[in-house]
Predict the structure.
Amino acid sequence: MRGAKRGLLVALSAGGVNSELAAHGIGVEHVEELMVRMAMRLLADGHRLCFGGTLGDPGKDLTKYLIETAEKWLDDKAAAKVDVTKPETWPLVNYSAWPHSRKITEDQRARLVGICQFIGIDPPGIPQNVLDSDAEPAVEKKHNSNALTAMRDRSARDADLRIVWGGRVTGASGWMAGILEEVACTLKLKKPVLVLGGFGGCARLLADFLIDPSASWPSQLNLAESADADRDALLTDSEREQLNARMIEIQKLVTQFRTAIHSEESVNGLSPSVIRSALLEENNRSVISLAADAAKQVGAA
Amino acid sequence: MTTPVSIYVIHHPQCKVAEGLAKSLYDWFRLGYLSGDQSGAGLPVYYRRTLDKNGLLQPEIRFHEAALNVVVVLVDEKLVADERWRAAMVAMATAVTQMRQNFASAKTPSARASLPQVMLLPTALHESFYRTGPLYEGFNPIRLLELTLSEQIAVLRRAVTEAAARLLRGDGAENPPPLNVFLSHAKRDGRHIAETIRDGVRSFGQLVPWYDSNDLPYGSSWRRPMESAAAADTAAMIATVTDAYPTRPWCRREAGLARTPALLYPKGTNVWKIQPVIAVHNPGAKFVRGAAALHGAPRIGWNSMEVEETTERVVDRLVLEVLLGQVHRRVAVNLENYDRTRKNSLWKKSCYITWVPDEWTLLKLRSQLKQRFSSIVRIVYPGYGLSDSDKLDLDSAIESFGRNTELVSFEEIMS
């Protein structure tokens, strides 16, 4: 296996919409292609990959292509280690939040044994019988948003390294922009994260903030951009306070991260120079190299 | 290192048809990036869908980053009616006209080499295109009016591919020599398909079908024209692979000649080329062996229920292979020069090839190198890299060069 001393579980998070990516001269297909190219390289280097969010719907082409990529590009040594009774040896992990997790059929799970492990995440604290019954659309949205938060926390706990790029800014399904929440979950656990800012979206807003120590918090990274009147009307006062407190905590975590990457000390196992380079790089080839380097650094730690 | 070609697709952000057409061009030139098994890197494609507060394209197009910039402007009624967009496209037309004049008036090749080439391809989606002044008056548009969406995609794809291939083949000249397309087939069971494809080839302005090269005895006069065209680099081939094809010695010879590597320049470099080849498969009911020389060539199955569409796809793909071959050659030459000027000791022991390798062409390369093959430690090839299983297939061929010989992709070197 070339690359890291040990194979990592690398979380890849990307997305976006054409209208938000247009200002950078790219579209959704650029984001998707980078996902496939990144997956090829990391799998060939012997790592496993996890992904979630909208990719949790097996009907989506990108999920299907990532799975095909895993089948074709798996490093031979890693492939030899796959044990069909041990999902932790399979190359892919897909996290999907309720209710989308319910769409994954038994047939799909069976066909992908040894390739992709599917982990469904329910909203915390909601009994199964409630989730199994029909709900008002607003209630369903609230459950989904909470499930998304739980999913991002779970993937952050499981993964050794997270790499993010693109990402929707406005109109995300969850309580906030997905990339922002994923970065925050990862930082809270003091785990390494690489923000690729060259591909627009939420990651670009974060990158602009991170690269400039004097920059103000991006005005678009707030709860209002993901507001949903019907869903938000169901929030209790306590829940609303918790959400606002979370947002403040997130800003603090990212600000602390910014300070750290402008020092010379390793940040959660990554060199600050690699993190800073990733913020600005726009070239596919270069970001894939940076990602591979980052995985190597984390693996060697 | 500048990239040989960049493609930009410009359109009004609210035109959904144009958004779809832009994606179709992306899919075409990126060689089906989503399939995950494409080791070959296609051509870079970017979009321009927004204007900044000054009415300029956002981000601006950095023409100097590519030797050839192909700019496709998809003009619909929203773009024409929008004052800011209309002004931006008129400005683009004026700027490109000036750049073309600068290029044409450059006195020396080195002066020309320092200037970016820009090819502007305005595309009419609506009749209001004819109200765009300099954009209409200065450039021959691609007309997509009154076509179905699938027809629009096909016409646009062909026009952009052909225009870019023409310019690259001619090294900037407006009218490069035509490309002779050899239609290799076995008359016994491949004639009908070959003739259909021949007619499709004729519809391309820069392609000349060369058909009557089969079912002739060894040593007959067909060989000299084909070898001359190959030597003059004006040859491509479409092979109709039927049951009889691999049993015909002259079919195998044609395929072998097309896929045998040759030096790009006779002296001083180690950059190698092969002819662009497309294989069209139409198997019958017999058990036959394949034609080994064509193993690594792009192949498609003949669909007798969709003859016109299949013919179009075959001819379009051939022109794309011509275009990609030209691009890979430029990258290979640049990489070799880069290694040479950095006094990288490896460059003398490297072969820079301009196709994704397969066993047959690698063994032919070894044969073409004659005694020099044992000194080769690195074979540099286009794309992001081959999967481990693909490389495993090539192990024997690589080991035949030497124990230390390895395959390295363009992208791996440039990283």
Remarks:
- The longest strand of chain B covers residues 66-75.
